[in-house]
Amino acid sequence: MVLPSRVRERVAAVHESSALPERLRQYDGWATDYDQDVAALEYRAPHLAAASLAFAFPAAPAGARLLDVACGTGLVARELHRHGFRCLHGVDGSAGMLERARSTGLYQELRQCVLGREPLPGPAEQYDAVTVVGALGEGQVPTTVLPELLRVTKPGGFLCLTTRSNLSNLRYKRELEAELGKLEGCGAWQKLLAQEVEHWERATSEEESTQGTGYISGVVYLYQKCPVPP
């Protein structure tokens, strides 16, 4: 099946917008069609991230407090809800995306925040888990945000992060993994999972396609903040 040109154009637009205000305007305008576009892309990251977190929690997750960073329209929240998570907070830089997320009724709290430019709202060590799904990539959220994600996570809490492994994101992925490794080396967290996934989403160009498959690959990372409870 050929990927609709409108989907390719919208994806290209947000990734090509280098200036932050323009990029946020692109996301605001995309919000109405975002869910149907990522469905056409066969985007698997929200499902994979939620499944990883559900596996990590040692007990029923209903009382666990989660922060969905760069929550978009709420795709991750829908998947988390299916796994029994009920106490969900979300932040995003796009007012349009937040409006769509609010309409799902899945979040107890939603706040506008441009991660990388502003600190996350709220005090330290308040969340049992933090997710960043889809926003860690070239031209999106900088790799320097990792300590801020750790700040709001409780000791022993989990952080689930994703990024793409397509050609145009390889430099960013190398930088991200270097920062992940530094934080692990200094004892800030420990790695539980780094799962490479071949069919992450459909490629929007032949150049990005992995070995002519028509898809790009990606990776799910799962970390646990130290100190880890016995």
UniProtKB/TrEMBL annotation:
Q: Where are the transmembrane segments?
A: none
Where does this protein come from, organism-wise?
Piprites chloris
* Alphabetized InterPro entries for the sequence: Methyltransf_25, SAM-dependent_MTases_sf
* A Pfam family of this chain: Methyltransf_25
- Give every Methyltransferase domain span: 67-157
Q: What's this protein's name? A: MET27 protein
